């Protein structure tokens, strides 16, 4: 559609609705009816999130900036956070809600003005959704990256299984070689499905197999009956597992691409209209939980790597110090040995022993801040020189504090020259 045509639709619909929405009671009643319709049609599944998105959208209509601003709202608040299939279902339902509402609350004359605006707005939104845009490449979350998230995935799949009561439900994700693997699943025959599916996935991207196609095209695949022409080599798996029908959902969220949610049934089915919406919502919710768990695991792994790198950096500093001052090297080894030995005899737990060991290695690291003429002086130190030397615990504390070392180790470094009696 040309820009001019979209602009015409915008002018026919948005200013009119903007005027209507200035009546707070109109918006309140509309949202209430939409909520009731959502619950009646699709049940109590994620309707709060849908309402939040609608409020954002209505705010954009009220502000009535321009066509580009409206598209930005749709892009940011709807397309990036939801499957387009889900949004179009909600758009149809919202349009019906407006029509029913105006018929029951306004005169025929008013209705005749509102109805065309409803259709213009719906058409405009659909055009904006399908307008070709340059897509950002998605980050691929392969099977290897989900090893630590299986518990979260299984809990979500159990929720889907309880509601749908299928033969089984599974999440299938490609590994780094592009071979599709069952990451987790719930229900009868799931173990057999996981075992049988692996040898066949080497066909993955070569043909028009349903699971790889769903993954590649990011579109829902509906398989109401067993069709060898569509299943290809997978028909053997369908036979052995007793699958007669299935629905496949791409599991994607914002800039992440995860895999395919496979929901199977033991009989050929004609799926009810609300089934796709509800199951798509479950797929979207599953994706959100997976990404949340994935990010948490990433942060934990990053912290461990960072901590390891910091400790290595400290050891490099200590090593340089020891090469400069051989007394410090021998002394640190002895302090560490005695501290650990005493700690074990006193019944200090494993974590405490580790603090003692690390503190012993690093306790004199602050000597890097002491001038060589004092640190390496062959004879006795003067009173002033002793004052400088006594600063090394504080210097050491400042070094380990910047390296995010455990508080207990920092305290050992800072107070290792304090007298027991204070």
Automatic annotation (TrEMBL):
Pfam families: HD (PF01966). Residues 306-422 form the HD-GYP domain. InterPro entries: HD/PDEase_dom (IPR003607), HD_domain (IPR006674), HD_GYP_dom (IPR037522), HDIG_dom (IPR006675). CDD domains: HDc. SUPFAM superfamilies: HD-domain/PDEase-like. Coiled coil: none annotated. PANTHER family: CYCLIC DI-GMP PHOSPHODIESTERASE PA4108 (PTHR43155:SF2), CYCLIC DI-GMP PHOSPHODIESTERASE PA4108-RELATED (PTHR43155). This is HDIG domain-containing protein. It comes from Carboxydothermus islandicus.
């Amino acid at each position: 559609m040309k820009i001019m045509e979209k602009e015409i639709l915008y002018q026919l619909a948005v200013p009119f609705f903007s005027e209507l929405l200035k009546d707070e009671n109109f918006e309140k009643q509309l949202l209430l009816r939409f909520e009731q319709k959502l619950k009646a049609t699709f049940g109590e599944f994620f309707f709060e999130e849908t309402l939040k998105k609608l409020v954002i959208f209505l705010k954009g209509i009220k502000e009535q900036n321009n066509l580009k601003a409206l598209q930005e709202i749709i892009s940011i608040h709807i397309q990036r956070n939801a499957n387009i299939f889900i949004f179009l279902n909600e758009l149809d339902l919202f349009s019906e809600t407006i029509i029913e509402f105006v018929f029951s609350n306004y005169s025929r004359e008013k209705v005749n003005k509102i109805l065309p605006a409803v259709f213009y707005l719906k058409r405009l939104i659909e055009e904006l959704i399908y307008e070709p845009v340059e897509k950002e490449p998605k980050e691929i979350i392969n099977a290897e990256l989900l090893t630590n998230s299986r518990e979260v995935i299984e809990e979500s799949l159990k929720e889907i299984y309880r509601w749908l009561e299928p033969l089984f439900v599974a999440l299938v994700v490609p590994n780094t070689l592009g071979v599709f693997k069952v990451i987790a699943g719930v229900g009868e025959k799931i173990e057999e499905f996981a075992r049988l599916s692996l040898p066949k996935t080497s066909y993955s991207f070569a043909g028009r197999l349903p699971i790889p196609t769903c993954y590649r095209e990011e579109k829902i695949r509906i398989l109401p009956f067993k069709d060898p022409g569509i299943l290809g080599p997978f028909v053997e798996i369908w036979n052995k597992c007793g699958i007669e029908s299935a629905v496949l959902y791409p599991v994607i969220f914002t800039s992440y691409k995860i895999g395919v949610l496979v929901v199977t049934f033991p009989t050929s089915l004609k799926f009810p209209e609300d089934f796709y919406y509800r199951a798509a919502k479950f797929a979207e919710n599953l994706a959100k939980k997976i990404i949340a768990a994935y990010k948490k695991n990433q942060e934990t792994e990053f912290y461990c790597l960072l901590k390891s790198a910091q400790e290595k950096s400290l050891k490099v500093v200590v090593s340089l110090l020891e090469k400069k001052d051989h007394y410090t090297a021998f002394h640190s080894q002895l302090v560490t040995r005695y501290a650990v030995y005493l700690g074990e005899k006193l019944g200090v737990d494993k974590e405490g022993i580790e603090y003692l060991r690390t503190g012993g290695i690093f306790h004199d690291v602050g000597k890097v801040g002491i001038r060589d003429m004092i640190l390496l002086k062959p004879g006795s130190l003067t009173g002033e020189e002793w004052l400088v030397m006594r600063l090394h615990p504080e210097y050491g504390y400042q070094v380990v504090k910047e390296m995010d070392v455990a508080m207990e180790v920092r305290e050992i470094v800072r107070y290792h020259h304090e007298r027991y009696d204070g």
